[in-house]
Specification:
Elements lengths: L1 E5 L6 E5 L10 H10 L5 H20 L4 E3 L3 E9 L13 E10 L1 H8 L8
Antiparallel strand pairs: 1-2, 3-4, 4-5
Helix pairs in contact: 1-2
Length: 121
């Protein structure tokens, strides 16, 4: 539980909200080892495939494609920028950055819905 203060009300009040607690990180090597244990390919091959997938997703986004992986979700490039008063002066200088938008698949969302929660003291 984490406390958050609401300064918009008078007097300011503190309320407590649930917060997910991480058990740690899973690195690429961990993922490759688990996938290798569930399949017929080696850990090194899994590692290579995961790295290649990451590269290919980046290249596809750079080329202006939306990347959809049915069981994982959709990746799309989103630009951030400043507005122009008219369409004509709008150009590269208006682009301030880019983000990757990720939308999880229905399958992944249903897995998250089935998670059970417990309070950690």
């Amino acid at each position: 539980m984490i406390p958050k203060q609401n300064n918009l009300v008078s007097p300011p009040e503190v309320k407590y909200y649930p917060c997910a607690v991480s058990k740690g990180e899973m690195q690429l090597d961990d993922l490759a080892r688990i996938i290798a244990g569930r399949s017929t390919i080696s850990r090194a091959d899994c590692y290579g495939v995961i790295m290649a997938l990451s590269d290919v997703i980046g290249e596809a986004l750079s080329d202006g494609n939306i990347v959809k992986i049915d069981s994982l979700g959709t990746f799309q490039l989103i630009l951030q920028g400043t507005a122009a008063d008219a369409a004509e002066p709008l150009g590269k200088s208006n682009i301030k950055g880019a983000k990757i938008s990720y939308k999880p698949s229905k399958e992944l969302k249903s897995i998250v819905k089935r998670i059970t929660y417990q309070r950690i003291r």
